[in-house]
Specification:
Layout (H helix, E strand, L loop, with lengths): L1 E2 L20 E9 L3 E4 L4 E9 L2 E5 L2 E6 L13 E4 L5 E5 L3 E10 L7 E3 L5 E5 L8 E7 L10 E8 L4 E3 L4 E2 L1 E4 L3 E13 L5 E5 L8 E5 L4 E4 L6 E3 L4 E10 L8 E2 L13 H6 L3
Antiparallel strand pairs: 1-20, 2-9, 3-8, 4-7, 4-9, 5-6, 5-8, 7-10, 11-12, 12-13, 13-22, 14-21, 15-23, 16-17, 17-20, 17-22, 18-19, 18-21
């Protein structure tokens, strides 16, 4: 499902019990200097990630000051995040001129401890090539290194390297719990383009061998994925970014099932197997 950009007035874009991705939660909060925002999401663990701007965060006594170092856009520096335990009350106060903050969430019923992820604690991977039109880099905020500190939530930022090209290829899905072949993970994206008037396309093929759907992506588009194979592409001459939320049904580790008709291309894309391992 595609959600076109709109003024959400700091209210969830993907709320609890969403009919498409019930395992996900997503909000975008926009603040100006001195403004505060408080939230708690029953039944969901969450992660606060400033897209731009800086905030001070308080999670029921756990404090993280000066979170977020980017000013112009998501390409302007490295991400940072704060993990917020299930149902915990989190308060953020904007300390920069303005800030745009992503709040990612996944359904989880146990209560863990809050912690911060600073720029030097990110887990990064780059794979693909210009030749295969698949060159991209991923910055894991809540990646595999935090398996013992997070319940079901995976949070990362994905960037195309260079202008134009494909992402999420070879086509894969993760909509059914059937280990060891695949796990059920709902997924939500928020896209940005550089320059901002750029655009792309999100494909969604629910059955191998049958035609699927395609969604026109613009700066600020949100995509919710509950099932099917889902590669995406950016137009030549533009860079693409997407904030990625994954919520697992029965486990945190993601097991992707690659579309049989394209799976042989796993052998043609440099570094892709290292990328896959970073989600497990």
């Amino acid at each position: 499902m595609h959600i076109a950009p709109f003024d959400n007035k700091n209210k969830p874009i993907v709320d609890i019990d969403d009919p498409t991705v019930p395992l996900n939660y997503f909000n975008i909060v926009k603040l100006t200097k001195g403004q505060a925002f408080e939230y708690a999401v029953p039944g969901f663990e969450t992660c606060i990630v400033p897209a731009t701007g800086t905030v001070d965060v308080d999670v029921e006594g756990f404090k993280c000051d000066g979170l977020g170092q980017r000013t112009e856009d998501v390409w302007d520096g490295e991400p940072e995040g704060v993990y917020v335990p299930t149902a915990a009350k989190a308060t953020m106060v904007c300390t920069s001129a303005e800030a745009e903050i992503f709040i990612a969430g996944a359904r989880y019923d146990k209560i863990l401890d809050a912690f911060a992820v600073r720029t030097n604690e990110l887990d990064k991977v780059q794979y693909g090539s210009d030749e295969t039109k698949t060159h991209r880099k991923i910055k894991h905020i809540l990646g595999t290194k935090y398996h013992d500190k997070v319940g079901r939530l995976l949070v990362s930022e994905l960037f195309t390297v260079g202008e134009g090209g494909w992402s999420g290829f070879p086509s894969h899905k993760h909509d059914t719990d059937r280990l060891p072949l695949e796990t059920r993970h709902d997924e939500t994206y928020n896209f940005r383009f550089k320059p901002s008037h750029g655009s792309g396309v999100q494909m969604l093929q629910r059955e191998d061998g049958k035609s699927g759907d395609a969604y026109h992506l613009v700066d600020g588009s949100t995509i919710c994925l509950d099932s099917g194979y889902h590669p995406c592409a950016v137009l030549p001459g533009y860079q693409m970014y997407y904030f990625t939320i994954l919520g697992g049904l029965s486990q945190r580790s993601l097991v992707q099932y690659f579309q049989p008709s394209h799976a042989d291309q796993l052998e043609t894309i440099p570094g892709i197997k290292d990328m896959i391992a970073k989600f497990k």
